[in-house]
Design brief:
Elements (H helix, E strand, L loop, with lengths): L9 E4 L3 H14 L4 E5 L13 H8 L2 E2 L19 H5 L1 H7 L3 H18 L3 H9 L13 H10 L6 H8 L9 H5 L19
Parallel strand pairs: 1-2, 2-3
Helix pairs in contact: 5-6, 5-8, 6-7
Length: 199
């Protein structure tokens, strides 16, 4: 489709670094178009992509366009604040509830820096992410969500701020699609499959 001019580039989502490297090696061998972007789960609360994927992407000039930039809203409001999504989104609960105690400390630091600079937590969280990638995927249901994302582009965090936000992170188990992206888990029922037709 790229060669036919129907699309410009191809990307991949929810894969391991070894899978992306193998796919692009095969593409090079067979004369196929390579993946030039990867869309995986990455934010201040879930930084497992830093282990291998970020290094591969930097070395091979592959764009990271992470989703869940605000951890399903958790990085946009104080821990004690809630929303309909936080209360009802079972898939987000699957991804974040298991590490809520550790994540709360990071969320608290996002809130501290937001107060220090007189900006929103969204701006702090996205400004951090923009030091790692150039095009995170953010969701918006209100105009203020778009405005907050746009303001984050102009917010420059110091290296001390970045260290402060990052230092409490602890390794997280893989969740969501990546938890299922293994041979052993491929037949397990996942949250997004609960209404799927049975074989």
């Amino acid at each position: 489709m790229v060669k036919a001019g129907q699309i410009r580039y191809i990307g991949i989502a929810n894969c391991y670094a070894w899978q992306l490297a193998k796919a692009n090696a095969l593409a090079e061998k067979e004369g196929f178009e390579k993946f030039i972007s990867v869309q995986n789960h990455y934010n201040l609360l879930f930084r497992e992509e830093e282990r291998e994927m970020a290094g591969l992407c930097a070395k091979d000039n592959i764009a990271m366009t992470p989703y869940s930039a605000l951890a399903s809203g958790r990085l946009s409001r104080k821990q004690e604040e809630t929303s309909k999504r936080l209360a009802e989104d079972s898939y987000a609960k699957l991804k974040y509830d298991g590490t809520a105690a550790e994540d709360a400390k990071i969320i608290s630091r996002v809130s501290e820096l937001a107060a220090k600079y007189g900006v929103t937590m969204t701006e702090i969280s996205l400004a951090w992410l923009l030091t790692k990638v150039t095009a995170p995927v953010t969701g918006a249901t209100k105009v203020r969500h778009v405005e907050g994302a746009a303001k984050a582009v102009d917010l420059e965090l110091s290296s001390a701020d970045l260290d402060y936000l990052e230092e409490l992170y602890t390794p997280h188990p893989l969740v969501g699609v990546m938890a299922q992206n293994t041979k052993g888990a491929r037949k397990d029922t996942q949250v997004w499959m609960k209404n799927a037709p049975k074989d």
